[in-house]
Amino acid sequence: METGFILLVGLWAGLQNALAGGGTFVTLPALILSGMTPLAANITSTVALFPGQVASGLAGYRLASGADRLSFRTLLIVSVIGGALGGLLLLETPSAIFTHLVPWLVLFATAVFAWGSLLKNSNRAMKHVGPFTATVAQFLISVYGGYFGGGIGFLMMAALTMAGLPIRNASATKNVLAGVMNASAVALFLSSPQLHWHEALILGFSAIIGGLLGSWALHRVNERALRIVIVCIGSALTIGLFLRPI
Question: What string of H, E and C letters represents the secondary structure of the chain?
Fold first, then answer.
């Protein structure tokens, strides 16, 4: 029964990531419900969803690029270092402390997702930033991504477009950088006793299938409606975590 549940969660998360992002909002509470601590659930979810991120990054790699006076190589290096630092911070965080942080992290991720999903057209009015500011922003996003990861897609889209990248290139670059920053974190998590291999393998396998289904359904599903559903899930999860601490 639990294996079937994890399979369905992986399919849903993969489909959701392919269509609108926010798969973490599904995998994190599902793994917690399966009996894991929030820390173990976060580590297991990150490892499980990583192959799908790599696939997305490779699919659009030819469109990935740097911005004005900011090379793609610099973005890659910053993302690797930031992701590793975030992963180390997570491994050094006691499980009890992370449990208390989870509601706030989910609240932040939900707010970022809602902003990026429902107010993303306002990004066009933002002024461009210089290469130093964009580099610092990407580093901080990478640290957050290695530590928790919810909402990093929209954070990177905002930072990259403000750095001067066109939307299409920013989206492809974001996918590559997400895979890179999580690669360094995942490398650290593989030896963690908090990683539940059985669930991670099942979740990862079904998430890849869900991602393929999502690619097929990309032009057949109302993306805005799906984003609204994801925001509702995140909001309900946030309220539930605050009212009833894990």
Answer: CHHHHHHHHHHHHHHHHHHCCCCHHHHHHHHHHCCCCHHHHHHHHHHHHHHHHHHHHHHCHHHCCCECCECHHHHHHHHHHHHHHHHHHHHHCCHHHHHHHHHHHHHHHHHHHHHHHHCHHHHHHCCCCCHHHHHHHHHHHHHHHHHCCCCHHHHHHHHHHHCCCCHHHHHHHHHHHHHHHHHHHHHHHCCCCCCCHHHHHHHHHHHHHHHHHHHHHCCCCCHHHHHHHHHHHHHHHHHHHHHCCC
- Residue 232, domain extent: 2-243
Task: Kindly report, residue by residue over 69-106, the tens digit of the pLDDT.
Answer: 889 999 999 999 999 999 999 999 998 899 889 889 88
In our burial notation (b when 16+ CB lie closer than 10 A, e otherwise), range 116-139 reads bbeeeeebeeeeebebeebbebbb
Instruction: Count the domains in the chain.
Output: 1
User: What residues contact 175, with CB distance under 8 A and at least 6 apart?
Assistant: 53, 56, 57, 59, 60, 64
Tell me the per-residue pLDDT of 34-46, one tens digit each, with 9 for 90 and over: 889 999 999 999 9
Answer yes or no: are the C-beta atoms of 25 and 234 closer than 8 Å. Answer: yes
User: d(Cα 149, Cα 118) in Å, to the nearest integer?
Assistant: 20
pTM flag (> 0.90): no
List the beta bridge partners of residue 70: 67
Tokens at residue 231, please? 């925001």
